[in-house]
Amino acid sequence: MRTCLIVDDSRVIRKVARRILEDLGFDIAEAADGAEALAWCRTAMPDVVLLDWNMPVMNGLEFLRGLRMEPGGGAPKVVFCTVENELAAIREALESGADEYIMKPFDSEIVAAKFAQAGLV
Amino acid sequence: MKPEDRDLVAQLCAARSGQQVDPAKDYLLETRLGPVARREGFDSIADLISGLRTRREDRLIWAIVEAMAAGDTSFFRDQALFNLFRDDLAPDLVRRRGDQPIRIWSAACATGQEVHSLAMLVDEMAGDHPAAQFEIFGSDLSERALEKAQSGLYTQFEVQRGLPIRSLVRHFDKIDDAWVISPRIRQAIRWRRLNLIGDLSRVRGFDVIFCRHVLETMIEPAQQRVIENLTAALNPGAYLVVGTHEAQVLEAQGLKAAEQAGVFRSPANARAAA
After folding, report:
1. B165/A86 touch (CB, cutoff 8 Å), yes or no
2. Please, are residues B262 and B244 in contact by the beta-carbon 8 Å criterion?
3. In CATH, what number is assigned to the domain containing residue A12?
4. Prediction ipTM score
5. pLDDT tens readout for residues A65-105
6. What is the domain count for chain A?
7. Is the distance from CB of A81 to CB of A106 less than 8 angstroms?
8. Where are the domains of chain B?
9. What would the pLDDT profile of B63-122 be if each residue is shown by its tens digit?
10. Which residues contact B71 (CB under 8 A, 6 or more apart)?
11. Interchain proximity B169–A91, CB inside 8 Å
C-alpha cells in the first residue's frame, strides 16, 4: 500500500484529509509542520505528500525545497493543499517542485481528481 | 410536487428537447425548477407551473426545459478519452486531413468545460502538429449555459474539478475570486445554440463530435433523432465520441464501435457532406 504524508498544522484538516486519502487506499502518516515532515521523510520516504503552505517552524515551500535536496527526495509526488490561491503562489510552488495543487476549501471529489491527475490513483 | 405538474414538465421536456424526466427524482425537479421560479418572479414551483398553464409562454417553457436539461460537467471529464483524442484520434486526423482544417464539435457543451478542455488540449498539441489547423465549435440547448461558457468564467470549485494545475496556470487568469480562461482559448471556439433533436441539416463536415452524457438522458425516439443528426454531420472516417455507458444506445442503432469504449467511426467511404 502506498504511503501519503499529510503535513498541516491543523489537526482538523489532517483528520479530514486522512479520511479521504484512506478511502483512496493510502497508508497515512501525519506531520504538523515542515520540520517534522522533513524528519519523517529522512526516516521513510513517502510516496506522496499532501502539503499545507502556512505552518509554524518550517512552511510548506521551505519543506518542499528541502525535500527535493534530500537523497531520494525527488521521488515523492507533492500535492500542495493550501489557502494560497494566487497565480504567483501556484507558479512558485510548481517551480519549487510541486506536482499538483489544491486550493482550500477542498472536498473528497477534488482530492480524488487531483490525485488522479498526478497519477496517484 | 403534484403528479400532474410533474407530468406536464415531463411532457414539455420530451417534446422540446427529447429529455426523459424521471418521475422518481422529485428532488431533481425541485432543485432545477426552484431557481427558474425565483428568476421568473413566482413564489414557488407550484406557482411557476400554474403560471405556465395560464400563460403558455414559449419563453417560460424553454426556461423550464433548459433548466431540466442541465447536466453535470467538469474539465477533462473521463480523462482517458481526452488522452485518446490527443494520442490517437487527433494524430490520425492530422495525417488524413492534410492541410484541411480539423473540425471538432462539442455538441452539448453545457457551461463549456468540455469544449474548453478540447481547446486547451489542441493549443498544447500545437508543438507536435505545427501545420495542423483546428476549428472548434461548442453548442448547447441552454442559452444560460452558453452565456456562462462564452464568458469563460469559473469558480475555484469548478477549476479544481478535473483541470490539471499546469493547465490552470497556463490558460487562466484570476479575477477576484473567479478564474477566467485566456482570450486565446476563448476565441478559438465558435458558439451556437442548437437543439440536437431539431433540424440540423445545415450542420455538416465534422471530424470529431463529442456528445457525452446526453443520449442516456433521452427518450428513445429522441435518441434515434440525435444519432441521425450527429452521424449525418460527420465527415467520412470521422469520430463520434459518446459516454462509455451510452455506447450500447449507438450499437442498438446499428453503429459499429471503434476499439475504444464510447468511440464510433463513420464509414470511410461515406459520401462527403456538403
Report:
1. no
2. yes
3. 3.40.50.2300
4. 0.94
5. 999 999 999 999 999 999 999 999 999 999 999 999 999 99
6. 1
7. yes
8. 3-69, 79-265
9. 999 999 887 899 999 888 999 999 999 999 999 998 899 999 999 999 999 999 999 999
10. B108, B110, B213, B214, B217
11. yes
